[in-house]
């Protein structure tokens, strides 16, 4: 177990104290209770108080939703364990007044029992209390064989709707009615790519293989309803939304809001891919997505995966979701609005110009280089992961594929014209440092050919362009350690000699401490591994020499 913790027993109180220190609008009481600092004023003003909570480990829930327009207090138990009835009662007594308290509870047995008992005690003390249970898990059907549908990320939407109603001064019965309607209109389903580790347990509660995904799980690291091979992101979204749409009986013309929730360990990049497909999927079915929120709302510690929550909305519910709020975790109101123009549409293209076809002899050489780089994508990626950022093989293969696909776009008037087109493709498609360096190599080579230099002379000038642009030289542990010896050897006109020289220069990089590039941050740790950029040069030069042998370069 690798976690930034002290003792497992201290995780929750230390986490809550740090959270409260960073948020001056909140105050930490004992027993895991976080309340608004203005709770006393709200009680005196007759505002209904909202309390939610549950086990810790779901951050930013639940303390992240304490603030104006949402919760008045949150109660955290141990990780994935319900808070005690006494802890809930502490929160009720701190924020509850004559206007009453609404408890929003996820449908887990411990939460229902402890929050329900606290509400019963509070009523006996003269504090009106209502309980709303959220059971939005569409993966489970209500059955005598289980404890019923679990409460998941859709609970956050209930917080927002009920919180806005309370902030507007509505009475307890009206706030409770709106909360129950919200809970009944939302459905959620999630998938996990990994398990999560409860600090006190020390090992993941869910053991997934490298190619497995868990469907329909809860938020406590427990197994879901099905395990299977991981499909594409689009296939995941389509299946989740198919289930959610059936659960809510959605049809064309229905208005919904969509919550794309990170279960804890999912990069924002992947959430964006999920959101993109989800909106397109619903739109294709004629379902109107009124609001979209993408982010980390209710997690299962560090679990990799996501959940989708869909809620049918009316004008009234939408207005409450849009109402101002001020909390740590809920985004500003304007961020939920779905953009009607996420992409900049290109201007109409000009009619395609007819250009002379690319010389086939030249193109055979270009294709050999490109296919060689595509074939070694994984090899270069693995090598680059040892001493760099791991993207070299991917970047070069992507550029090679783009060059091959663009053959008909290139001007075949002469070799220089074709190379200029190839340089432009590389510039557009290859990221990182490799893109501009290879584009400079090809572009300067093209300029030298246009000035009537021979191929060996032109190639040497291209290598000079790489050195000038990158600010490196021979011995800096870069692609130049292969390019410079190769260019010098190519003056003889034999590619095989250039490959031998490039191989020797590349092998020597294993004993060089890098002064340029990502490897320079590793110091001695990069020693013993050849430079990936130089290795790539050897690979495509060798492929080119094999294709041309025994032909001489002239």
UniProtKB/TrEMBL annotation:
SUPFAM superfamilies hit by this protein: DAK1/DegV-like, DhaL-like
Keyword Transferase part of the UniProt annotation: yes
Entry-linked Gene3D superfamilies: 1.25.40.340, Dihydroxyacetone kinase, domain 1 (3.40.50.10440), Dihydroxyacetone kinase, domain 2 (3.30.1180.20)
Pfam families, per the entry: Dak1, Dak2
Domain of life where this protein originates: Bacteria
DhaK domain boundaries: 7-330
SMART domains (UniProt xref): Dak2
Keyword Transferase appears in the UniProt entry: yes
Record key words, sorted: ATP-binding, Kinase, Nucleotide-binding, Transferase
Database matches in InterPro entries: DhaK_dom, DhaK_L_YcgS, DhaL_dom, DhaL_dom_sf, Dihydroxyacetone_Kinase
GO molecular function, one term: kinase activity
Domain DhaL, first and last residues per copy: 360-546
Name of the protein in question: Dihydroxyacetone kinase family protein
Annotated organism of origin: Kribbella koreensis
